[in-house]
Amino acid sequence: MSAPATSTKVAAEGGTVSPRPAKPAWIRVRAPGSAAHAETARIVRQHGLHTVCEEAGCPNIGECWAKRHATFMIMGDTCTRACAFCNVRTGMPRPLDPGEPARVAQAAKELGLTHIVVTSVDRDDLADGGSAHFARVIDALRASSPSTTVEVLTPDFLRKAGALETVLAARPDVFNHNLETVPRLYLSIRPGARYFHSLRLLQRAKEIDGRLFTKSGIMVGLGEAREEVMQVMDDMRSAGVDFLTIGQYLQPSPRHAAVQRFVPPAEFEALRQIAVAKGFALVAASPLTRSSYHAGDDFAKLQAARSATQA
């Protein structure tokens, strides 16, 4: 799984331009165009909301929006970090919108979501990292759609004391924070983050609320070695992570980190089997796997796995 190193700095850091390679057949997806997709887009626009589906250029948007599934990205469309893999814009964000939690809740209700994923940009400019805003969104969802289960995909809340506790006090059903890549690549791929801080965040979430499902994901194709991926799996299991996602990194633009390798589907299946053997309750691994892809179905599988273990 390893590959020769390539200079892959983002433009904001003065990096080089890396032309995007042609995608193999197993990566290509059909363009969106269904009536349900258009209706999902209309609801998102009507309520003035952002989705990670659009901002991050997710390849699964056509499939998910056709099923009226959208992953809301709260706290604006501008991130305070400049990760080399991410397509979300970087800069100084606007102040938080106090009306956003209610609009997210109303949009989720109109879409008929039974399971919702809420993520955000990094907000290092806020004293609490935006954790109280996360909690307000969860509260609004609970009030508007009591039967809807809530999954949060949060930033790392680096140097934001008490932020994790604030989010968990609102009692989400799934707490997700992605490690994204192997420790060796953090400096070039995720320079504003710290691997062991992110790992500890996941561990603390489980310590604070044992009934909570915890989830994390990584990308492959960035130059990582197979042994490094397996070590990340072990680290996650030591932190009590229940659900692991593994997907192919896709380069958003020539100014983002270059794809070092397209990993074939058979290797994803091999990684999935290894992860299952290591004790994860659930593993999703495929070229198009993303954190919120099939999240509702996967939540049901997690519940079934826990029930079977308890029985």
TrEMBL record:
MF-aspect GO terms? 4 iron, 4 sulfur cluster binding; lipoate synthase activity; metal ion binding
Query: Mind telling me which PROSITE patterns this protein's record contains?
Result: RADICAL_SAM
Q: Which residues bind [4Fe-4S] cluster 1?
A: 53, 58, 64, 292
| Domain of life, source organism | Bacteria
Q: Which Gene3D superfamilies match?
A: Aldolase class I
Catalytic reaction(s) noted: [[Fe-S] cluster scaffold protein carrying a second [4Fe-4S](2+) cluster] + N(6)-octanoyl-L-lysyl-[protein] + 2 oxidized [2Fe-2S]-[ferredoxin] + 2 S-adenosyl-L-methionine + 4 H(+) = [[Fe-S] cluster scaffold protein] + N(6)-[(R)-dihydrolipoyl]-L-lysyl-[protein] + 4 Fe(3+) + 2 hydrogen sulfide + 2 5'-deoxyadenosine + 2 L-methionine + 2 reduced [2Fe-2S]-[ferredoxin]
* Cellular compartments annotated: Cytoplasm
Please state the Enzyme Commission number of this protein: 2.8.1.8
Question: What are the GO cellular component annotations?
Answer: cytoplasm
A GO BP term here is: protein lipoylation
Keyword vocabulary terms for this entry:
4Fe-4S, Cytoplasm, Iron, Iron-sulfur, Metal-binding, S-adenosyl-L-methionine, Transferase
* Cofactor dependence: [4Fe-4S] cluster
Q: Per its UniProt record, what InterPro entries does this chain match? A: Aldolase_TIM (IPR013785), Elp3/MiaA/NifB-like_rSAM (IPR006638), Lipoyl_synth (IPR003698), rSAM (IPR007197), rSAM_sf (IPR058240)
Start and end residues of each Radical SAM core domain: 65-281
Q: What class of enzyme is it?
A: transferase
Signal peptide position in this chain? Answer: none
Give the record's pathway: Protein modification; protein lipoylation via endogenous pathway; protein N(6)-(lipoyl)lysine from octanoyl-[acyl-carrier-protein]: step 2/2
Q: How is the cofactor bound?
A: Binds 2 [4Fe-4S] clusters per subunit. One cluster is coordinated with 3 cysteines and an exchangeable S-adenosyl-L-methionine.
Task: Summarize where [4Fe-4S] cluster 2 binds, as residue positions.
Answer: 79, 83, 86
* Coarse class of the protein's main subcellular location: cytoplasm
Give the span(s) annotated as Disordered.
1-23
CDD domains found in the cross-reference section: Radical_SAM
The record's family statement is: Belongs to the radical SAM superfamily. Lipoyl synthase family.
Which PANTHER family has this protein been placed in?
LIPOYL SYNTHASE, LIPOYL SYNTHASE, MITOCHONDRIAL
> HAMAP family this protein is in?
Lipoyl_synth
This protein is called what? Lipoyl synthase
In its UniProt entry, the species of origin is given as Hyphomicrobium album
User: Which gene specifies this protein's sequence?
Assistant: lipA
